[in-house]
């Protein structure tokens, strides 16, 4: 095989692997890494899996916005109720932005989104000491493409559980 064919195959393989949306998928963040080791299941309303799937672990934002929408309020209200019913958990709220804008701008926007979600949870009675925030800016997209549908999914704040009752 010629060097050009090998290079083309290599580039095509890299391009295909970049299209995968599972690399940066943080929908299972509570299953490992930054989450806790015991996940329970959807049938257990005190489990991280129930929190992620039934309550909802993320809220979305409009372009260049960090204000909480009515749809986000519903999700955050559910998170606040769940966190009050499960006081052993602490959370980290991750702020994210889409790929547009500078790195610095998106880090600031992600921080603003995480802080908006944090402030909302605090206003609903969750202790501030249980909530940390972090901004990833545009560095951890869950959708990698330059289409509006991808941008919408990447403009988010994700509440990641830590701690909790290990059994």
SS-derived structural category: alpha+beta
Beta-strand percentage range: 15-25%
Q: What is the β-strand count?
A: 4
* Share in helix: 40-55%
What's the overall geometry? Answer: globular
- In oligomeric terms, what are we looking at? single chain
- Largest beta-sheet details: 4 strands, mixed
Average pLDDT over all residues: 83
Rg computed from alpha carbons, rounded to a whole number of angstroms: 18 Å
Low-confidence regions: 6-37
Q: Helix and strand succession?
A: HHEHEHEHE
Number of helices: 5
Beginning-to-end CA distance, first to last residue: 56 Å
- Order of the strands making up the biggest sheet: 1-4-2-3
Structure characterization notes:
The chain has 167 residues and is of the alpha+beta class. 42% of the residues lie in helices and 16% in strands. It has 5 helices and 4 strands. The chain has helices at 3-19, 48-56, 70-85, 103-123, 148-154, and strands at 58-60, 89-96, 131-137, 156-163. It has a 4-stranded mixed sheet. Helix 3 crosses helix 4 (103-123). The chain is globular and about 40 Å long. The termini are far apart. Mean pLDDT is 83; it is low at 6-37.
């Amino acid at each position: 095989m010629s060097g050009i064919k090998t290079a083309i195959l290599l580039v095509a393989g890299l391009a295909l692997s970049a299209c995968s949306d599972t690399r940066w998928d943080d929908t299972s963040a509570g299953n490992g890494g930054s989450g806790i080791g015991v996940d329970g299941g959807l049938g257990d309303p005190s489990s991280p899996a129930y929190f992620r799937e039934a309550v909802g672990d993320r809220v979305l934002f409009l372009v260049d916005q960090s204000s909480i929408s009515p749809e986000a309020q519903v999700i955050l209200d559910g998170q606040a109720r769940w966190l009050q019913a499960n006081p052993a958990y602490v959370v980290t709220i991750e702020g994210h932005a889409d790929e547009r804008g500078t790195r610095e701008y998106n880090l600031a926007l992600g921080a603003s989104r995480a802080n908006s979600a944090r402030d909302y949870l605090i206003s609903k009675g969750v202790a501030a000491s249980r909530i940390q925030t972090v901004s990833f800016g545009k560095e951890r997209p869950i959708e990698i493409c330059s289409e509006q549908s991808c941008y919408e999914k990447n403009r988010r704040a994700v509440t990641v559980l830590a701690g909790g009752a290990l059994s």
